[in-house]
Amino acid sequence: MLLVDDEPLVRAGLRAVLEAQPDIEVAGEAADGAAVIPLVRRLRPDVVALDVRMPLLDGIEATRALLRTVADPPKILVVTTFENDEYVYEALRAGADGFLLKRARPAEIVHAVRLIAEGESLLFPASVRQLAAEYGEGGGNRAARAALERARLTGREGEVLRLMARGLSNAEIAARLVVGTETVKSHVSAVLAKLGARDRTQAVITAYESGYVAPG
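== Response regulator transcription factor ==
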């Protein structure tokens, strides 16, 4: 993975925590979002951890640039000091897959990276719900509503989207609906394709902003 933060101590702390894990390798570091694209193209990390606030190019713009210019982009985890931060929500809207607090415990950091890499569950669903409630336009986002109308989700797909928004993993959704995990994966893939969403996080943000799912 790639670490991008303008504070050397933060990068060093994250590196120490992550490289202690046998299944995680830190391939590189950068001090600003402006360095992300060339590093991603050279190193091809599976996950990029981006500080949401940096002096030249912040995590929001770096996320947009990365998704706009890099084919098959990595998963993006924005790193922040404050949980209830409009910058974090804007990064999620821009396409980030999740966020991580700088004060998180080592086990939480490792769990977040693994969960983002796997992509089968929503990271910190209660926090995403709180952010959507505060900054998500109260279900009045026209683009999100149009995306839901165009999607024409089936009843089962809509049910899966609501369970995704609650943070349930594919296995948990399968247990709730009494179906196989592969069936759930197919439904999730259909939901993402119909919404034009890159991942679960973006699908859930669309669901909240359209009013299809209430964030409260």
